[in-house]
């Protein structure tokens, strides 16, 4: 496993509209840095035994300076590239910025600073063995599917469901090709596991962590 070459892609190109305020959530203060810099440091430390060919961070259009400032001293270790209007397009641009031909790419939300080394390495190992992986947790609440009018149409079995997190890990060349096909088909997908599932195959689910939340709403800031 240690001999695999990897690339890390952290997405931070969103507008953070749901959380409000004037500071992008990835740039908020956390520990001795920011949400984004702590997130990046966690990956660098967790993957220190691997050959990291590329470390890419996506930022908003015309936002490279602010992203570099939020990364602090780590900025010199990453490639900052502008994202796009959707996560899918931003990830594709990030993948295109990777030049080192890694075996595996790890894609992580920059607004998930609580990710652990264990979650990262288990997902990475599973991707090396299976081609693609994602951490997931069983939902606490019973899940239902509803129709456009708000009525329940299907009762889902909770034990067979997972709420997926990041990092989502994939064989790099196959994912890059799949993103290209999705772009050519003008198809929009919710995340990279859906793209992989459409064009490549199955995704293995590793054990996620309830603490590995994505900062989305103001109440989430209380955890910082």
Q: What gyration radius follows from the Cα positions, in whole Å?
A: 17 Å
Broad shape:
globular
Q: Largest beta sheet, briefly?
A: 8 strands, mixed
How many DSSP helices? 6
The percent range for helix content is 25-40%
How many E-type strands?
12
- Class by alpha and beta content: alpha/beta
In short:
The protein has 224 residues and is an alpha/beta fold. The protein contains 6 helices and 12 strands. It is globular.
What is the strand and helix layout of this fold?
Blueprint: E1 5-11, E2 29-30, E3 33-34, H1 35-46, E4 51-59, H2 64-71, E5 79-82, H3 87-96, E6 104-109, H4 117-130, E7 132-137, E8 144-146, E9 152-155, E10 163-164, E11 168-171, H5 172-184, H6 192-199, E12 204-207
Parallel strand pairs: 1-4, 1-6, 4-5, 7-12
Antiparallel strand pairs: 2-3, 6-11, 7-10, 7-11, 8-9
């Amino acid at each position: 496993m240690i001999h695999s070459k990897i690339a890390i892609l952290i997405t931070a190109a969103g507008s953070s509209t749901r959380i409000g305020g004037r500071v992008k959530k990835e740039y908020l203060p956390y520990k001795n840095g920011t949400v984004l810099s702590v997130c990046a440091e966690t990956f660098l430390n967790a993957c220190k035994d691997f050959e990291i060919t590329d470390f890419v961070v996506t930022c908003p259009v015309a936002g490279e300076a602010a992203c570099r400032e939020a990364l602090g001293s780590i900025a010199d270790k990453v490639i900052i590239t502008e994202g796009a209007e959707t996560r899918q397009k931003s990830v594709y641009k990030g993948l295109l910025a990777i030049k080192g031909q890694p075996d595996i790419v790890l894609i992580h939300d920059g607004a998930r600073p609580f990710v652990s080394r264990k979650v990262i390495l288990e997902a990475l190992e599973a991707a090396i063995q299976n081609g693609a992986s994602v951490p997931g947790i069983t939902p606490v609440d019973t899940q239902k599917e509803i129709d456009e009018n708000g009525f329940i149409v299907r009762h889902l079995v909770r034990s067979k469901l997972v709420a997926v997190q990041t990092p989502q890990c994939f064989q790099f060349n196959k994912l890059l090709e799949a993103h290209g096909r999705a772009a050519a088909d003008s198809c929009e997908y919710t995340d990279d596991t859906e793209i992989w599932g459409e064009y490549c195959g199955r995704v293995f689910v590793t054990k996620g962590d309830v603490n590995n939340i994505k900062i989305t709403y103001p109440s989430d800031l209380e955890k910082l």
